[in-house]
């Protein structure tokens, strides 16, 4: 099958080519993202393969259908960027990679916590400049602290296990309770209760209309003074303006984010010689207690292998007309 692969970097090409050898799909790589401005590039293809920041709204999906696209293969788990209703309307199947490495994302969330707390990023730079002072590097023991986990699916479970290993008390909020976590001693509480009693809050729920701006001014006001908030899920779970206001008031003591509301204009690109036009991320970067990584939580060898093998398999199953186990449809 001939597939247009969008938003690709060297590592995507390397892993997809490696696992495509046996299947032999014709993969044509585009560095550009897929959206309404680039949909014309899909003429002559049967399928498209996309990532987290490609925008597959109704207009783009109509364009895909007009160009004869029959399948959209997501190289990720989240699908908030795809209008599933429009895909169904235009008879385009949608598949994803439901789990590539929950551990990778959970471990990155833990890395953000440890870095923000123990300030290893600052210590590294200091020591390289022969500054061996400990002034302003003081952290806190994770042992005994209460960690609130919002969303206990695959990543939330992996993250909770890590934090239990540090000797934290883990509480959680989800629409469904995990029997595994309850057995490990995790207590489920209401969303508001988790906000009120946690020292660290980590988001692991998907972005949906219900979770858009889940953490806003009201939610921040419920939290403990000096709370640490971690988001490795989706940027728009947090209202950035409200987070900045809470940081300025010192309500929010630490913020670690791997995702950002407006990340599609920034992340995955080297903009070191550009003038950043996004004033909110620029403001966030001025805070000494904010740590931003550019959507790299998933970025391990194991996850890249799983993304490539599952994507190639999803395309092969579609071609063979066998059931698509990783298909997603509107609710
Ligand atoms: P999952 O589907 O296994 O789990 C999501 C959980 O969130 C489910 O248990 C669900 O019931 C719960 N949930 C839904 N709405 C909720 C709400 N309002 N309040 C509390 N819980 C709610 O998904 P997962 O594999 O654990 O992934 C979680 C999210 O992580 C994905 O949706 C994606 O956005 C993000 N992600 C980020 C990266 C990255 O590199 N930063 C990589 C993979 C996934």
Can I get a quick summary?
It contains twelve helices and twelve strands.
Q: CATH class of the largest domain, anyone?
A: Alpha Beta
Overall geometry: globular
Approximately how much beta-strand content do the residues carry?
5-15%
Strand order within the widest sheet? 8-7-6-9-10-11-12
Q: What's the N-to-C terminus distance?
A: 29 Å
CATH architecture of the largest domain: 3-Layer(aba) Sandwich
DSSP strand tally: 12
The CATH topology of the largest domain comes to: Rossmann fold
The topology string of helices and strands comes to EHEEHEHEHHEHEHEHEHEHEHEH
Q: Biggest β-sheet, characterized?
A: 7 strands, parallel
Count up the helices.
Answer: 12
Protein architecture, described:
This protein has 331 residues and is α/β, with parallel strands linked by helices. The protein folds into 2 domains: 2-100 and 301-320, Rossmann fold (3-Layer(aba) Sandwich), CATH 3.40.50; 102-292, NAD(P)-binding Rossmann-like Domain (Rossmann fold, 3-Layer(aba) Sandwich), CATH 3.40.50. The chain has 12 helices and 12 strands. α3 (84-89) links the parallel β4 (71-74) and β5. The protein starts with a strand and ends in an 11-residue tail after the last helix. The structure holds nicotinamide-adenine-dinucleotide (NAD). Nicotinamide-adenine-dinucleotide is lined by residues 77-78, 99, 102, 105, 150-156, 173-176, 204-207, 210-211, 232-234, 258-259, 295, 297-298.
């Amino acid at each position: 099958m001939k597939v247009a692969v969008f938003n690709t970097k060297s590592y995507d090409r390397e892993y997809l080519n490696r696992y495509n050898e046996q299947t032999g799909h014709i993969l044509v790589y585009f560095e550009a993202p897929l959206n309404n401005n680039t949909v014309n590039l899909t003429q002559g293809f049967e399928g498209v393969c996309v990532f987290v920041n490609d925008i597959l709204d109704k207009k783009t999906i109509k364009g895909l259908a007009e160009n004869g696209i029959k399948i959209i293969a997501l190289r990720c788990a989240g699908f908030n960027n795809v209008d599933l209703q429009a895909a169904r309307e235009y008879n385009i199947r949608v598949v994803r990679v439901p789990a590539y490495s929950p551990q990778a994302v959970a471990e990155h969330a833990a890395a953000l916590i440890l870095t923000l707390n123990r300030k290893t990023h600052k210590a590294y730079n200091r020591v390289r400049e022969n500054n061996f002072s400990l002034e302003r590097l003081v952290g806190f023991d994770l042992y005994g602290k209460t960690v609130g986990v919002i969303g206990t699916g695959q990543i939330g479970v992996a993250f909770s296990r890590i934090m239990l290993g540090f000797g934290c008390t883990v509480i959680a909020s989800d629409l469904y309770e995990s029997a595994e976590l309850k057995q490990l001693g995790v207590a489920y509480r209401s969303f508001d209760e988790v906000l009120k009693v946690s020292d660290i809050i980590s988001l692991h729920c998907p972005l949906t209309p219900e979770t858009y701006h889940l953490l806003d001014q009201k939610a921040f006001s419920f939290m403990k003074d000096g709370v640490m908030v971690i988001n490795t899920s989706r940027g728009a779970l947090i209202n950035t303006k409200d987070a900045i206001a809470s940081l300025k008031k010192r309500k929010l003591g630490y913020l670690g984010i791997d995702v950002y509301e407006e990340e599609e204009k920034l992340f995955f690109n080297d903009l070191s010689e550009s003038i950043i036009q996004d004033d909110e991320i620029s403001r966030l970067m001025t805070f000494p207690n904010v740590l931003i990584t550019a959507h790299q939580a998933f970025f391990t060898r194991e996850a890249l292998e799983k993304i490539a093998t599952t994507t190639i398999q999803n395309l092969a199953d579609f071609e063979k007309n066998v059931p698509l186990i990783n298909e997603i449809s509107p609710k």
